[in-house]
Amino acid sequence: MIKSMTGYGKAEAVLPNGKITIEIKTLNGKNADLGIKSSLFPKDKELEVRSRLSSRLVRGSIDLFLSWEANAEEGGKEFNMDNARSYINHANILAKEMGVQYSPSNSAMLLNAILRMPEIVESKKSEVINDDNWDIVSAALDACIDMVDEYRSHEGEALYKDVTSRVDNILNLYEKVEAMEGARAENVRARILKAAEELNIKLDNERFEQEMIYYLEKFDINEEKVRLREHCRYFKDTIEGEAYPGKKLGFIIQEMGREINTTGSKANHAEIQKLVVQMKDELEKIREQSMNIL
Q1: Residue 186, in any domain of the structure
Q2: Is the domain of 108 the same as that of 27?
């Protein structure tokens, strides 16, 4: 069964010092366009992560997000006393030069201002992912990729039903075109006779048959009919028989469109033209959906 390129997965890696949440979002794309939206992965692990994503998810726009939630003792804050003293000393020097006298209120304001200064209150820093906990993170990454793959499979079922039903619609519409071919021949015959009558031309039977043959051959759609059916069959064989048929389906759709367009140019019949428009509409919807097929 085919898979969609749209997917989502989420998994967690619980570590001794906190919790890592891994999220993967995928959308359609021509190739594997990988984006790791986090600096938590060590540089020596990034190549392995990219390789795993591309081999498992194959194609599409693939974004990996990591977020870190430290335990209380790990996620605490550190107060940089040296920087704080430096700020206060400089504030005192400036106050003396300006002749400012401290009071309880402006002293409190000074302390509040210093607490908001850079490098006063700092988060405790520690390496989140390392060799000791890599196995836990790696297992969570695999679980997340599995969820994305399952999501894609579920979406692929809906895509399969939609595009194959539309291919059947095109074939059914073409059967209606075939049913009108007899009426089309009669229309050609009537137009030739009417034109000859208006021009006061007397056609002998042999010349009339020659004109009929010329027009019927000019507007014959038998080859288009055969090729379109073959393309539709090939579309179904491909979508059912290949693991990642998305790109090939795009080429088959182009060939289907060529036969439908040629049918329209040869139709010379208002009702057939309407059917051709309906077939084009179905094909355009197939094209849009196929762009998301892996």
Answers
A1: yes
A2: no
pLDDT per 10-residue tile (average), the chain, 294 residues:
94 91 94 89 89 93 92 62 79 78 71 72 65 93 97 96 97 90 69 68 66 66 91 96 94 96 86 93 96 94
Longest Cα pair distance anywhere in the chain, in angstroms? 123
One domain for residues 16 and 135: yes
Q: What is the domain extent for residue 117?
A: 77-123
Measure the N-to-C terminal CA separation of the chain; round to a whole number of Å: 11
C-alpha separations of 98 from 93, 101, 102 in Å = 9, 9, 12
What is the residue type of 246?
G
| Structural domain includes residue 2 | no
Q: What per-residue confidence (pLDDT) applies to 287? A: 96
Tokens 């094909």 sit on residue: 283
pLDDT at 185: 65
The C-alpha angle 197, 198, 203, rounded to 5 degrees, equals 30
Q: What is the pLDDT of residue 245?
A: 95
Q: Let me know if residue 1 belongs to a domain.
A: no
Structural domains counted in the chain: 3
Residues whose CB is less than 8 angstroms from the CB of residue 80 and which lie 6 or more positions away in sequence, other chains included: 119, 120, 121, 122
Q: What does the pLDDT read at residue 138? A: 95
Claim to verify: residue 171 and residue 286 sit in the same structural domain = yes
Question: Considering only CA atoms, which of 77, 63, 7 is closest in space to residue 294?
Answer: 7
What secondary structure does DSSP assign to 220-234, as a single string? --HHHHHHHHHHHHH
Q: What is the pLDDT of residue 90?
A: 80
Interaxial angle between packed helices 134-179 and 222-241, expressed in degrees from 0 to 180 and rounded to the nearest 10? 160
Q: Are residues 161 and 147 in the same domain?
A: no
What CA–CA distance (Å, rounded) separates 114 from 92?
12
Residue 255 within any structural domain of the chain: yes
